[in-house]
Amino acid sequence: MTTTHSAGIRRVGIVGCGLMGSGIAEVCARAGLETLVYEVGPEAVTAGRSRIDSSLGRAVQRGKIAEEARAEALDRLTFTTDLGDFADRDLAIEAAPEREDLKRNILMALDKAMTQPDAIIASNTSSIPVVKLATATSRPTMVIGMHFFNPVPTLKLVELIPSVLTGEATRQRIHAFAAEVLGRHVIRSQDRAGFIVNALLIPYITAAIRMYEAGFASVEDIDAGMVMGCAHPMGPLALADHIGLDTTLAIAESLYQEYREPLHAPPPLLARMVEAGHIGRKSGRGFHQY
Ligand code: CAA
């Protein structure tokens, strides 16, 4: 069964099947959409597929979905290593690593590949101003920021970021799609680095890193302070590990490039940890060990 709705989006394609792409692909497939997932090579496809598989397994275990729904979602997913296969997609959601040059190249390739006249290209960028990506395409009116939160199946928010070039029809279609089909709560942001959530969250996380770097308190005490004292589900350093220190650094750099304020300057320790390959949960080590 496939879904039709006011946004008229039935076939979706997700570029990237990492932490975010796999979650976005999972929620699209669970929502009844024919979902094509691109990764760079066969190994990345295998890793991405197993990420989705185990998340769907967790959803069944937790009683969120029935075993039947899991099997149906898996049936709706196909994988490719060729962006040319996106020709018939109504919507592509780019979820590649947070690098402007990489994202621009992907959007350029999608623009060439996607032949449906109304096809929309959305980017899950966490912080890069959307207009910088839209100008890589010949259809900037049909490019929009659509930002999900990790873990995507659990956190029901989508930040919608129309650029100054995004058409009103595109904004309305993606809003309807996110709300009606994916069941997300939609918030709308101006096209400024970091948008709403990361413009607030990343300075908080980098303040915690500076606090630790200055010898002010231990990792455990900083995290316990915010979990036990403010009822946050995770402390700021555990959250940085969860997001990925590479992504956290990339977002801090985008914010600093936009605002040039000391508040946004990435702490040296964050840069050193990324250079060392200690990028958080996904590498087994960040501020905590996994
Ligand atoms: N599908 C549906 N639901 C699922 C699921 C799946 N695949 N996997 C887990 N869940 C559900 C669980 O059933 C559970 O729901 P209930 O509370 O209703 O039982 C819920 O998700 C939490 O799952 P767990 O019990 O396994 O995990 P937990 O309680 O230890 O919470 C956490 C883990 C959700 C990560 C929580 O610690 C949390 O919310 N942390 C903060 C995460 C956060 O702030 N994320 C945003 C980062 S910023 C970002 O993503 C944007 C960016 O650009 C950087």
TrEMBL record:
Protein's UniProt keywords contain DNA repair: no
Gene Ontology BP term (one): fatty acid beta-oxidation
Pathway the protein takes part in: Lipid metabolism; butanoate metabolism
Alphabetically ordered keywords of this record: Oxidoreductase
Gene Ontology MF term list: 3-hydroxybutyryl-CoA dehydrogenase activity; NAD+ binding
3-hydroxyacyl-CoA dehydrogenase C-terminal domain sequence ranges: 194-290
Coiled coil: none
3-hydroxyacyl-CoA dehydrogenase NAD binding domain boundaries: 12-191
Site (Important for catalytic activity): H147
Family: Belongs to the 3-hydroxyacyl-CoA dehydrogenase family.
Protein name, UniProt field: 3-hydroxybutyryl-CoA dehydrogenase
Organism: Streptomyces luteolifulvus
